[in-house]
Write a structure and sequence with these properties.
The chain is an alpha+beta fold and about 450 residues long. It is built from 10 helices and 20 strands. The chain folds into 2 domains: about 120 residues, 3-layer Sandwich (Rieske Iron-sulfur Protein), CATH 2.102.10.10; about 280 residues, Naphthalene 1,2-dioxygenase Alpha Subunit, Chain A, domain 1 (Alpha-Beta Complex), CATH 3.90.380.10. Strand 16 and strand 17 form a beta hairpin.
């Protein structure tokens, strides 16, 4: 368990907090390109790291990210006019460019130089293959974008966002906890419902994997292994990458191209990002529970209804106004108790929604001082320690966190693999874990 002090350090991302300052060292996924579909189009609300911001795509096609409140009298730039490479406040017509510099003050006399003295807080943005990245850190010379493989390749890469109403760390920790697969998602599946010698077969035959966890240049990596055939182990290998990226082990190691991000909206809300190539997650024995069926019904949907990604209408709420699932806490995630008794471990349709129900049900910020952690929590424990240590090292000794200046450390892949029992898993999977060059 963590101390109350460490739990607070881990979770709080406001400006001036140790973890908030750590996250601000990195480029942050701020918007999907599709959220700003046209030049000089409507501004959109964005909340990042507890700050209310407004994004807009200017005439040139570049993206701006500016403080919500106009420096003049505090009117919201959301209602502003996006025109001629800048955003104009509709209250008194003050206009600001992408850098936050005031370029026009029509309410002031023509000979006034006041506009040269006024700036709004703005954050530089770079757009790459469907993702708008923002830098909210202190450097005048910004670090490079991370070499996130699917974002480098573009093409058929798909970008998906879903709001989760809890702290970013507890959402992210679900991705690096492999033992819950056999219970939360596959708890009602019988061994005979799986294909013999597939990843799913091995996972359900032994629901208590053993773990090896290591620190890496980019964060932490686990190898969770269980017996496969008499001379082999089935390994699930996955990563945490600073500051909030994960690579889950659901696909085939060496094939799956997938990165997930748990971006802090504020201390109690997280924007989940899924960036990947869907075709790379399939394949025989991929370990994807959604491929399993019982009596023709997808196991992942067992609960009487199919889990889906229908979203509620967009609202003006800064924290949870966008990308909120229709299947949510207010309707108990479509929990079906009859299905839970008869064919589903949880009664909640959808793998992602099962995870969401659990992590949101812990509360906005889980009280980690009350936990009792076991051997299956080794990756969670190691990752917490790395985050806390990196935040303290930055605060106390100005040590640059892992990966900030070396984008190449993000060139990783995750997934499942069968290895001989005598093989050293790190060396045996070195090439499979390496992302291809863009």
């Amino acid at each position: 368990m963590l101390s109350a002090e460490d739990n607070a350090l881990l979770c709080h991302v406001g400006r001036g907090t140790p973890m908030g300052e750590l996250v601000r060292q990195y480029w942050i996924p701020a918007l999907a390109s599709t959220e700003l579909p046209e030049r000089d189009g409507a501004p959109v609300r964005v909340r990042l790291l507890g700050e209310n911001l407004v994004a807009f795509r200017v005439t040139s096609g570049a993206v701006g990210l500016i403080q919500n409140h106009c420096p003049h009298r505090g009117a919201s730039f959301f209602f502003g006019r996006n025109e001629e490479d800048g955003i104009r406040c509709v209250y008194h017509g003050w206009k600001f460019d992408l850098s936050g510099r005031c370029v026009d003050m029509p309410s002031e006399p023509d000979d006034s130089t006041f506009k040269t003295k006024v700036c709004a807080v703005s954050y530089p943005c770079v757009e790459r293959n469907g993702v708008v990245w923002a830098y909210m850190g202190p450097r005048a010379t910004r670090p490079p974008l991370p070499d996130i493989e699917p974002n480098l390749l573009g093409g058929e890469c798909q970008v998906q966002k879903i709001l989760r109403e809890c702290n970013w760390v507890q959402g992210m920790e679900g991705d690096i906890d492999t033992s819950h697969l056999g219970f939360l998602h596959l708890g009602a599946v019988k061994l005979e419902d799986t294909v013999p010698k597939s990843f799913d077969y091995y996972a359900l035959r032994d629901r208590a994997p053993r773990y090896e966890v290591v620190d890496t240049d980019f964060g932490t990596t686990y190898g969770a292994y269980r017996p496969a055939e008499p001379d082999t182990y089935y390994w699930r290998i996955a990563h945490f990458l600073f500051p909030f990226f994960t690579m889950i082990p659901t696909g085939v190691l060496g094939t799956q191209i997938l990165v997930r991000a748990w971006v802090p909206v504020d201390d109690g809300h997280t924007m989940f990002w899924n960036i990947g190539f869907p075709r790379t997650r399939g394949g025989a024995g991929a370990g994807n529970a959604a491929l399993l069926t019982v009596e023709g019904r997808p196991v992942a949907a067992a609960g009487g209804r199919t889990g889906d990604y229908d979203f509620l209408p967009e609202t003006a709420d800064w924290a949870k106004g966008k990308f909120r699932l229709a299947q949510n806490r207010a309707n108990d995630y479509w929990l079906d108790r009859k299905a839970q008794r008869e064919r589903s471990f949880t009664g909640i349709p959808g793998i992602f929604q099962q995870d969401q129900a659990i992590t949101e049900g812990m509360g906005a910020i889980v009280d980690r001082t009350r936990e009792h952690l076991g051997s299956s929590d080794a990756m969670v424990i190691r990752t917490r320690r790395r985050l806390i240590a990196a935040a303290r090292a930055l605060r106390e000794r100005a040590v640059v966190p892992p990966g900030v200046d070396d984008p190449s450390v993000y060139r990783q892949r995750s997934g499942g693999v069968i290895l001989p029992r005598g093989a050293g898993w790190l060396e045996a999977t070195k090439e499979l874990r390496a992302a291809r060059q863009a």
